[in-house]
Write a structure and sequence with these properties.
heterodimer; A: alpha+beta; 9-stranded mixed sheet; 6-stranded mixed β-barrel; 24 helices; B: mainly alpha; 3-stranded antiparallel sheet; 47% helix
């Protein structure tokens, strides 16, 4: 029994075994002897130099075997010298072969490049967003810690300070244990203009835990994050670039954050925006009782010990907490969660993977084109290859030559494709709408390494496929007489080409249908009447800094002061402040509505509502159908305006809900309905929150920090933006403005997701159709070329044009028809995956499909026109000379 | 028949057999030791050459040396035939002549004949 040997040794011997069998010909005894010798050599290397030595030796030996391998029997008989053709020589031959066919080479390379280019670009995005783990140290073991209050049975995304300190001690469960707060808006002043930045609090060890270090300066440490400790901030790369001009001297400088001086101690790497992709600066929290007590509850983030599942960690810690205080239930129990919003939403990831599936179709079509090119090439090269075979070149040599050529072309295609991919990626990334919330944790959407890997994998697959297909079709090494072999190959080749055309048509049709559905759906979205006077509205969003306006009354006064100033601006007809982040609403989660004399109603998602001041409905252009709008005197009163859907749902069959009361949950006050407003399509348009129900209450007493102003303007609202900015700063020069945008633009922003998917899929479909058209054209052109002589004779014999057109296109037409049928079936099977993206159109919409079938038939017809015209122009005399 | 002059690896392999029968692994070790690792014979090259030398009748398979009692008995050993010895001697003489010639034109030092390798093999 042999002792266990290192894997590298066994692998090397296995490889050698495979190679030596061929080397020794039929001589098993010599092969066995060589194996024994090789094994001895490897063991010696293993002892002297370890695995590396073994691999070096094995590589040398394998190369040597390849170099000294005796040629197969039918190979060229020139003896040892002739057999010394290594990889280099094969490639040199192949390169010569490629250079003799520049047109074929160009077509091959370009087709591959297009197919590979879009795929590599798309894959770079998909892998960064959906496939790769977050680029944090041991991201697969990272988990969030939330807590459950056993007294109230309420859970929340934070861990109270005392529990945080206690849980952190369980080092056998958690290898690391840090914490962070949510991203919150803060005013950054001291630079040119006051500016709103998103700030997150993190415990001082968090960056180290993630394995992400500042590119400039240092991370937190010492007594930073303790009450009374030094006020320091680490800023993001984006903020450093945009607010501080990438000043390398930023470290040590003082900035004013929330009206307090902070010293900048570090700059994080580009795109790092922990936790949820919006943070631009980080403030320290010391993970000590005093530090945590001062900062308030944080969300826990921990590396679970390897092998420990989230469930197990949660269960074990809970058990320990229970046994530590026997008889009493501990107040706080851990909830160990996945990374949640730190990752891109599951639905978005799925859609991106789906889109990647679509772009793979483009690669398949390109591959079909390349194969089709290979088939045509085989027909052209039969004579050459037959001559090579007659002169004694072995089957293996010819195959090697053909695969070698295909490899050179494929890799050239991949290389050109990567250049295209780089351009495509540069175009694609800025198109990605913010609303998609793509989270990569700072990973760049770059071609290296995944896009490049994909490109080379595609080339690696294509080369042997095309090479061997060409060889098979050219009947390499067959014994049939040249002429007969040629005829047979022609027939087989045509069959393959037609199958390829059918496949291309089917694939293109699926993409066209998918793109058609999205475009139709997008068109419907854009045409939805926003009801409000979207083209005359300017929106301003801002957050009042909590530390400057601690009381609701302060905030209400500040908003009123801003409203008055804005009202005086020339061109402004009306100003409506609201606490809703217009055009979005605020929302109540899982309402359980009760209504006077109506039906109770509970929802599993959000019910949108707006807190509005006087003039809101008038300014936005929302009609009051019944009753009255909300006025200033309503502030603080339990009154509401409901929209028509809500009125209908709460009091079905009741014509007039005025003066009826309803409440959102049993904990809320009863609200009296004073008016009914017309329905406004909510943002998101598809699957509206609250099933289209909405209500309005007066703003006032409870004024929060988030506000929006809607300004009804005369003329282009965008023109007023700068004036509005200056007017607001005239009121308070330290107030940052979150956003100024037109209502129309905000609507477009909301449709960014739909627009992005539509543009992508339409682009893929266009490319696919173009490639398919090129493929169809090539096939028909070849039919015409091969049959030049026959067509010429027919013309000479007086055949009508129609007959000739028919005979030239009939096989192609059959292939296209087959492809259409196949495509329709595939479309029905696949478009249901688009369902969640569609608005107002069914995934099996027959009209959309019909339009696309028509489109692809027209494209196919156009693709055959050129070669058919050539066929019609054939002169009988020229045709005779064709052979 | 192997081509003459012998290529360097083949010549070294035959030299290794001058001292007595060896198996393939032994030949590789011996040549590596002599040349301080400069020539690392590979199995493909070695066994191809051994096959050809045997066809030419310059070497023959043999029993292993008596003292290698514990050696794997399936191991194949090779020894030089008298004809093979003659070829090695002839080759050595040819190389001597080459070295003398090189010295006379100042291309090689007198006292360092040991480092004068054979001309690169293969060219006829």
């Amino acid at each position: 029994v042999r002792p266990a040997e290192p894997l590298s040794l066994r692998l090397a011997e296995r490889l050698y075994d495979l190679a030596v069998r061929r080397h020794a010909g039929g001589d098993a005894a010599t092969a066995a002897e060589m194996r024994r010798t090789f094994r001895e050599l490897c063991r010696r290397e293993q002892e002297a130099r370890g695995a590396l030595g073994v691999w070096k030796r094995a590589a040398e030996e394998l190369l040597d075997l390849a170099r000294t391998a005796p040629a197969t029997k039918d190979s060229d008989p020139r003896g040892e010298r002739g057999r010394r053709g290594g990889i280099g020589q094969t490639l040199a031959h192949a390169l010569r072969g490629v250079r003799r066919r520049p047109a074929y080479a160009a077509a091959f390379i370009l087709t591959m490049a297009v197919g590979i280019g879009v795929n590599a670009a798309m894959f770079a995005v998909v892998s960064a967003v959906a496939l790769r783990p977050l680029p944090y140290r041991d991201a697969d073991r990272l988990a969030q810690l939330w807590s459950l209050n056993t007294a109230t049975q309420r859970d929340g995304p934070t861990v109270p300070p005392a529990a945080f300190v206690e849980w952190r001690e369980h080092a056998d469960l958690f290898e690391t244990f840090e914490g962070f707060g949510p991203e919150a808006a803060a005013a950054l002043s001291g630079s040119a203009e006051p500016r709103q930045v998103m700030v997150a609090r993190v415990t001082t060890g968090l960056f180290a835990m993630l394995g992400v270090a500042p590119v400039l300066g240092r991370s937190f440490g010492g007594d930073e994050g303790l009450p009374g400790g030094p006020r320091v901030v680490v800023i993001g790369h984006g903020l450093w670039t945009s607010a501080f001009g990438s000043d390398p001297g930023i470290i040590g400088r003082t900035v004013r954050l929330r009206d307090e001086d902070h010293t900048v101690i570090g700059v994080m790497p580009p795109r790092f925006a922990f936790p949820y992709g919006a943070a631009e600066a980080w403030l320290p929290v010391s993970a000590t009782p005093t530090g945590l007590e001062a900062s308030g509850a944080l969300t826990g983030l921990a590396h679970l010990r390897s092998g420990l599942t989230r469930e197990a960690a949660e269960q074990r810690l809970s058990e320990r907490l229970r046994t530590a205080a026997p008889g009493t239930e501990p107040v706080w129990l851990p909830m160990v969660r996945d990374l949640g919003f730190m990752r891109t939403a599951e639905a978005t990831r799925r859609t991106l993977v789906l889109l990647f599936g679509a772009v793979l179709f483009v690669l398949l079509i390109a591959t079909a084109n390349v194969l089709s090119l290979g088939v045509a090439e085989a027909a052209r090269r039969q004579r050459e290859l037959a001559v090579m075979a007659t002169l004694g070149a072995g089957r293996g040599r010819i195959l090697l030559q053909l695969v070698g050529e295909a490899a050179i072309l494929s890799f050239a295609g991949a290389a050109v494709g990567l250049v295209l991919a780089w351009l495509a990626l540069a175009g694609l990334v800025p198109l990605i709408p913010e609303r998609l919330n793509l989270q990569t944790g700072g990973r760049a959407m770059a071609l290296w390494p995944d896009g490049v890997g994909l490109a080379f994998a595609a080339a690696l697959l294509a080369a042997p496929l095309v090479g061997s297909l060409t060889a098979v079709l050219a009947r390499v090494g067959g014994t049939a007489p040249l002429a007969r072999a040629a005829a047979g190959a022609d027939r087989a080749g045509r069959r393959i080409q037609h199958a390829l055309v059918a496949a291309q048509v089917a694939l293109s049709l699926v993409l066209l249908a998918g793109a058609g559905l999205l475009m139709d759906s997008f068109g419907r979205l854009v045409r939805v009447d926003p009801v409000v006077a979207a083209d005359e509205l300017l929106l301003v969003r801002l957050q009042l800094p909590q530390h400057r306006y601690p009381e609701a009354a302060h905030r209400a006064a500040a908003i009123e002061a801003m409203r008055e100033t804005l009202q005086t601006l020339p061109g402004v007809l009306g100003v409506a402040p609201t606490s809703s982040p217009l055009p979005l609403a605020r929302a109540r989660f899982r309402p359980e509505l009760e209504a006077d004399g109506g039906t109770p109603l509970s929802l599993d998602d959000f019910l949108p509502y707006h807190e509005v001041g006087e003039g809101f409905f008038e300014t936005l252009g929302i009609r009051i159908v019944r009753g009255r709008a909300l006025v200033a005197a309503d502030a603080g009163q339990p009154v509401a305006v409901v929209n028509e859907v809500l009125a209908r749902r709460l009091w079905p069959g009741l014509g007039d809900p005025l003066h009826r009361r309803f409440r959102v949950t049993a904990h809320d006050p009863w609200l009296t309905v004073v008016g009914v407003s017309e329905d406004v399509p909510q943002m998101g348009l598809r699957d509206p929150w609250g099933e289209g129900m909405e209500f309005y209450v007066p703003a006032g007493e409870q004024a929060g920090t988030r506000w929006a102003f809607a300004l009804r303007t005369v003329g282009d609202p965008a023109a007023l933006a700068e004036g509005v900015r200056q007017a607001l700063w005239a009121v308070d020069d330290r107030q940052p403005i979150e956003a100024i945008t037109t209502y129309r633009a905000a609507l477009g922003e909301d449709m960014g997701r739909e627009r992005f998917y539509t543009i992508l899929l339409a682009g893929f479909a266009l490319l696919a159709t173009l490639l398919a058209a090129v493929g169809i054209h090539a096939v028909v052109a070849q039919v015409v070329l091969n049959r030049t002589r026959e067509i010429g004779i027919r013309v000479a014999l007086g055949a009508g044009k129609l007959r000739i057109i028919r005979s030239a296109t009939a096989p192609g037409a059959v292939a296209v028809a087959a492809g259409v049928l196949l495509g329709i079936a595939a479309t029905f099977a696949l478009t249901r995956f688009l369902e969640s993206l569609l608005f107002g159109v069914e995934p099996r919409d027959a009209r959309v499909l019909a339009v696309n079938v028509l489109a692809i038939v027209i494209v196919a017809a156009a693709a055959v026109t050129v070669p058919v015209r050539r066929a019609l122009a054939i002169e009988p005399v020229d045709a005779m000379r064709a052979e | 028949m192997p081509e003459l002059p012998l290529s360097e690896p083949v010549f070294h392999a035959m030299l290794a057999l001058m001292e007595g029968p060896r198996h393939g692994y032994g030949i590789i070790l011996q040549v590596e030791a002599w040349t301080e690792g400069r020539i690392r014979l590979k199995t493909g090259t070695l066994y191809t050459a051994l096959g050809r030398l045997r066809e030419a009748g310059w070497i023959a398979e043999s029993e292993g040396p008596a003292d290698e009692a514990d050696a794997d008995e399936r191991r194949r050993h090779y020894r030089l035939t008298p004809e093979g010895r003659a070829v090695v001697r002839a080759e050595a003489r040819r190389l001597e002549a080459v070295v003398r010639l090189a010295q006379s034109v100042g291309a090689a030092g007198r006292g360092r004949s040991g480092t004068a390798g054979a001309p690169a093999g293969g060219e006829a």
